[in-house]
Amino acid sequence: MENARISGWQMFVITFFFTAGTTWIILPGKLISDAKQYSWLVCLWAMVYGLAIALLWLFLAKRFPGKNLIEIVTLVLGRWAGGLVALFYILYFTQIASWVTRNLSDFMNISLMPRTPQSVFHVMVLIICAYAVVKGIESIAMVTELLTPYLHFVFWIPVTWGVAREWDWQNFNVPFEFHFLNTFDQTKYLLGFPFMETVSLMMLFPYVHNRLKTSYLLGVFAAGTIMILSVLMPIGSLGVERSAHLVYPIFVLFREMQFTGFLEHLEAILAINILFVVCLKLSIVFYCAVLAICQLFGVKKRSAVAYPLIWFLSAYSLLFENIVMNVEWVDNYLFHYYALYGIVFPVLLLLVAWMRRMNHAPLSGGNRPA
User: Fold this and answer.
1) What fold is seen in the domain 28-170+177-358?
2) Most C-beta atoms within 10 A of its C-beta, which of 122, 172, 351, 354?
3) How far lies 32's CA from each of 157, 257, 274, in Å?
4) Domain positions in the chain
5) Structural element, H or E, at residue 291
6) Predicted TM-score (pTM) of this structure
7) pLDDT (tens digit per residue) in 14-69
């Protein structure tokens, strides 16, 4: 395993950008369409759920200090069963990376460069992220820390100005009845994306040398708060009906902002922000996938895995023909699929470890990382 150290602050910003990632630009329109002016409540209970399962993963990590997710799996379940579950997690990490890549290309293709083939965006971004992965997690953490002030400064100043000028409380008085069970069923995808994706960060836990629990939970909480604000801003400024019919309501909000009479088209600033944030999230999950492969198969050089993986991720991200197919998959299958990795496998690991301790059976069988 890489000899690296991450501070508590760096873990906080990594968790924040990984969890918020593409969510704040992609999901607001769909959430508002499903829950109307009550979409902020959906974000609130999803955040509570995210904190609860984060505690589950922290408890699992505490039982096996100094070990990441792949090491825990192979240690508890043994070489063969653990290796199979580790392969599932590798598939999970690569799928998240490919979906993040596709989210970026969809945004660029729909909003900015419709004539550019999506594979061009995929390869360009993945090459940069693969280079970051080869350089190591400390480099990714430092870049994330460096970009944090800029990303917040150039986002919140225009948003505060624009939203304050256009805000209308009457936009929340839409005649829409709130039925908890029905709304929960329609929006359960938010429990999976992004909150169950953060199980991937268990690959980074051994690198954090202080305040792991605090930084991890605060990162999830801050990302949940951003999600709440990202649905409140379009509703208050654009209205429920219009926001519900927009693919990227935050982007439209920026596009329609105007400072005095000469500063317009602030969506270019947001597009740069989105590019940075997506690259940060993609680099983190890309690193998790490469590290897991290296540990499971004993590969010593990350570059031998990272660069070939570019082509697999680029091809896999083209699995959905268009954004509509992606949305349908998220609606129907995403929560159940993510629950396998975020809930079922961690609980299984805890149960097996508990039973083996009750029977005084030693935990062994995990391969040491390369």
Assistant:
1) Amino acid/polyamine transporter I (1.20.1740)
2) 122
3) 24, 21, 20
4) 28-170+177-358
5) helix 267-297
6) 0.93
7) 999 999 988 988 899 999 999 999 999 999 999 999 999 999 999 999 999 999 99
